[in-house]
Amino acid sequence: MILYILRTYFIVIFSLIVTGLLAQKPKVQNDPAHDDKPIHFGFSLGLNTMDYTIRQSQYAKDHSIYAEIADLQPGFHVHAISNLRLAEYLDLRFLPGISFGDRLLHYVDENGDLLFDDGKPYKTESSYLEFPLLLKYKAKRVNNLSPFIISGINTRVDLAAKKEYDARDQLIMIKPLDFYYEIGIGFDFYLVYFKFSTEIKYSAGLRNIFSPTDFNGGLPPNEIAPFSDAIDKIYSSLVMISFHFE
C-alpha cells in the first residue's frame, strides 16, 4: 500500500514539475542568492503513514494464524532543518525531530476471518525521536522553481516502545532502536522572503524490531500464546509528506 502511494505521488509530482518547467517564461527571481548561503536553517511540518512488513513464523503457517496491517493511519511530524551547501547543486541536510503515528493490526485465518479479541484491531503506537542525515541534489533553478531528489539514512528511537507485559496492551513488543534508508523527491518554491518546499519520502527500516514478549520466564497465557508465536520478524516503514520553510 505504501509503495502504491509513493509511486502515484512520484508520477503526479513529476508530471507537474515537467509541465511547470515547460510552461515557464523568464521572470524576476525571488531571493536569487538563497542557495549561495553556506548554511541556512528552517523548520518542517508534515503528515505520515506508518507500516509494518511482517514475516510470519512457521507456527503461523502451520496453524493458519496470520498478522497483517488492517489500515494505514495518518500521523504527523515536526523537524528542525540545518542545511549545508556542499556544491552548486548538492546540499547536506540534518533534520532532527519527532514523529507520531500508529499501526492497526488484524489477526486472520486462512479464510480471512478475524481472530483475537472479537476481531478488534491491535494498535501499536510509535513516537519517534529521529535524526535523518540526507543528501539533496537539486536541478538547475528555473525562475522560482527547482525540483530535487534526496537520499540518506535515519536513526529512530521509539519512545513508545513497550517494555512491560500486559496481555492486551503488550501483545507485540517492539525494539526501540532502528536504522532506516530514505529516498524521496520534491520541489522548491522561492518566495519573496523564504523558500517553501514540499517533498515525499519513503523510509524503510533495516532491523528486525520484533521482540518476543517476556513473560517473566514463564509461558504466555493460553489465549495469548498463538498470537505471540505467529510473528517471526517485523520491519518498519514510513511514507512522509513534508512542508519545509527555509
What does this structure look like?
This protein is mainly beta and 246 residues long. The protein has a single domain (2-22, 43-245), classed as Beta Barrel (Porin). The chain has helices at residues 2-23, 58-63, 225-228, and strands spanning 39-56, 66-72, 74-87, 90-94, 97-108, 114-115, 122-138, 145-158, 173-174, 177-190, 195-205, 210-211, 231-245. Strands 1, 2, 3, 4, 5, 6, 7, 8, 10, 11 and 13 form an 11-stranded antiparallel β-sheet that branches. A two-stranded antiparallel sheet has the order 9-12. A hairpin with a 4-residue loop joins β10 and β11. The two termini are 31 Å apart.
- Broad structural category: mainly beta
- Distance from N terminus to C terminus (CA atoms, Å) equals 31 Å
Number of helices: 3
The percentage of residues in β strands lies in over 45%
What is the CATH architecture annotation? Beta Barrel
Count of the domains: 1
CATH class: Mainly Beta
Major β-sheet annotation: 11 strands, antiparallel
Order of helices and strands: HEHEEEEEEEEEEEHE
Give the rounded overall mean pLDDT.
82
Radius of gyration from CA coordinates:
22 Å
Reported by name, the CATH topology is Porin
Number of strands: 13
Which spans have pLDDT < 50 for at least 5 consecutive residues? none
Helix content: 10-25%
SSE blueprint:
Elements: H1 2-23, E1 39-56, H2 58-63, E2 66-72, E3 74-87, E4 90-94, E5 97-108, E6 114-115, E7 122-138, E8 145-158, E9 173-174, E10 177-190, E11 195-205, E12 210-211, H3 225-228, E13 231-245
Antiparallel strand pairs: 1-3, 1-13, 2-5, 3-4, 3-5, 4-7, 5-6, 5-7, 7-8, 8-10, 9-12, 10-11, 11-13
